[in-house]
């Protein structure tokens, strides 16, 4: 059986009097690819931030590779790669220089590994240009490369297809399918989620969610019955 990577138990989150999450639980194992969909403000980005320890949990728990995100943050986050909202870079440096700086945060990131992730996101021809000259799509690709740099086994992507062309999305799709760990992503792109995800959760405006993790086709069948 594949290793359990991410476990969320009865997660709840309030902002003032508004309950954004009303108790969500999930378990994700290696090779699971989970897509979050739903309207803006329904809690998709909130749960991502709870999983990453970027917001406090009102009730419930998150465990990554067996470590509690609040009680043992360093060990929990060690094998996580993420893009939340727009990735930030030193604009006056090149793409490669930015990746080298990120590599210094981890152990044993080689030049060959940097080349691998650059090739995966299709930036070989522009990696030595300053990031200030990059389009929004190129910066998004560089962010994905940075998230993959240290070989995480949990990859969390917030709107990963933003500003990307079809060719890059296809390449990204192939790379994520081959990823050995867990991929969790938020998107409004139903075509992307249909071709990539093997699990889907739909968040609703009332803080609830369709709690049957399922394939895209099964998800559509469930929606038609509701």
Tell me which CATH architecture of the largest domain applies here.
3-Layer(aba) Sandwich
Query: What would the CATH topology of the largest domain be?
Result: Rossmann fold
Secondary structure category: alpha/beta
Gyration radius over CA: 18 Å
Strand runs, count? 10
Structural domains: how many: 2
The CATH superfamily of the largest domain appears as P-loop containing nucleotide triphosphate hydrolases
Q: Percent of residues in helical segments?
A: 25-40%
Oligomer: single chain
Q: What is the number of helical segments per DSSP (H or I, 4+ residues)?
A: 8
Order of helices and strands: EEEHEEHEHHHEHEHEEH
Largest sheet: 6 strands, mixed
Query: Spans of 5+ residues with little confidence (pLDDT < 50)?
Result: none
CATH domain class name of the largest domain: Alpha Beta
Strand order of the largest sheet: 6-7-8-3-9-10
